[in-house]
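Amino Acid Chain and Its Fold in Token Form
===========================================
Structure side: the spatial fold of the chain, written down as a series of whole-number tokens.
Position: the record begins directly beneath this header, with no further notes in between.
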Amino acid sequence: MSIKNPEGKPVVALIRSEGHYEGVREALQLIEDRVAHDIKGKKKVLVKPNFVSTRVQLAATPVEAVRAVLDLVTRYHSGKITVAESPAMSTFQEGLRNFGYLKLRDEYDVEFIDLDEDDSVEVEILNSQLKPISVHVARTVAESDYRVSVTRPKTHDAVIVTLSVKNTAMGSLLNGDKSRMHQGYKAINLNLARVSRLTLPHLGVIDGFVGMEGNGPVSGTPINFGIAAASTSPVALDAVVAEAMGFNPGDVGYLHHLSEWGMGTLDLGEIEIRGAPLEKVKKGFKPHPGYREQLQWR
């Protein structure tokens, strides 16, 4: 599957953020025309936050970022919206309670789905010898016709950064299969790209008001990044945000593969950035201690 901008260059909204809700709202307003166009007629709308940990707030998507997404999406979609996740640690219900998500049911027509309890579809990935094995992707994610990924920018212990594309790819796997993705640096990047062919977001949203640097994606430290970004071209979005974090997007293996497979671009010269100039928001994130080893995916 390739989600392309039919009007030419992919567009990424990038703004200085003054809060989780305010920043995401402003970024989405800059691409509201594209969201309105793409969501028209869609039946199964999925919002996918990121709960790597259900107890460490810095490792999870703030509920205010999701609220800003829902406020925009509900302008153009009148049906029920699914909020779903498969946390890497503990249960989805614990994350909903701990991070204040349950109150969204009182404000919007949303349903919560624990993807670990979902039906699944099988996807072929690779083991450490690059031989085929399989994992199971939640059917709710695979069959949604409009997927929204909402996450923080974080460094990662295997693939340098985790942003909008990885959020839906890894988070769509049933929990018992997540460990099967980790087959060494070369394989995990190929595996994320393979799964992304089924899970790529139609809208990516990055709440970078506060990010995580260092020992991500759970045990890192906060960094006041002060940005928000959004795009209907998720690979381009992640390329822009990775660059703003101080990383070369081409060094992120799974983004490289998706670009090579025609599912997005990492060439910043081919991307229209609306809002703040990229050079004005760059802030070097401290990489994961294993950063140099992670480059061995090549």
In short: The two ends are 24 Å apart (CA to CA). The longest strand covers residues 120-126. The domain at 11-297 is CATH 3.40.50.11440 (Rossmann fold).
